[in-house]
Amino acid sequence: MAGKITFALLIVVVTFLNLNFTSADPAIATAYNPFEICIENCAQCKKMLGAWFEGPLCVESCIKFKGKLIPECEDFASIAPFLNKL
Q1: Global pTM?
Q2: Based on CB atoms within 10 Å of each CB, which residue in 42, 54, 61, 71 is the most buried?
Q3: End-to-end alpha-carbon separation of the chain, Å?
Q4: CA gap 47, 82 in Å, rounded
Q5: Which pairs of positions does the record mark as disulfide bonds (predicted)?
């Protein structure tokens, strides 16, 4: 019986020691960054729409407004300022 308790205690101690060595993505633990999402969405829209989408202008907008106006590639109103007529 004492051997089983000692073994269980050993497992618990090893588990707690391993918690210090685990790594996690800090983005999961913190709130999202709207500036990063804005830049990523600009890149995604550029891939989807190609030459019709002004990617650099979109990124400049992200910088100017600090990510407050996030473009959505499927929402015409949010990407209209970045479209050109070719």
Answers
A1: 0.63
A2: 42
A3: 80
A4: 13
A5: 38-62, 42-58, 45-73
- Asked whether the beta carbons of 25 and 33 are under 8 A apart, the reply is no
Find where tokens 């089983």 sit. Answer: 4
Ramachandran angles phi, psi of 75, nearest 5°: -110, 105
Where exactly are the structural domains of the chain? 2-82
Tokens of 84: 């050109």
Q: Cα separation of 68 and 5, whole Å?
A: 56
pLDDT in tens, 10-31: 565 556 555 555 555 555 556 6
Spatial distance between the Cα atoms of 32 and 15, rounded to a whole number of angstroms: 30
Cβ atoms 67, 73 nearer than 8 A: no
Enter the tokens of residue 32: 């999202």
The encoded tokens of residue 47 equal 């891939």
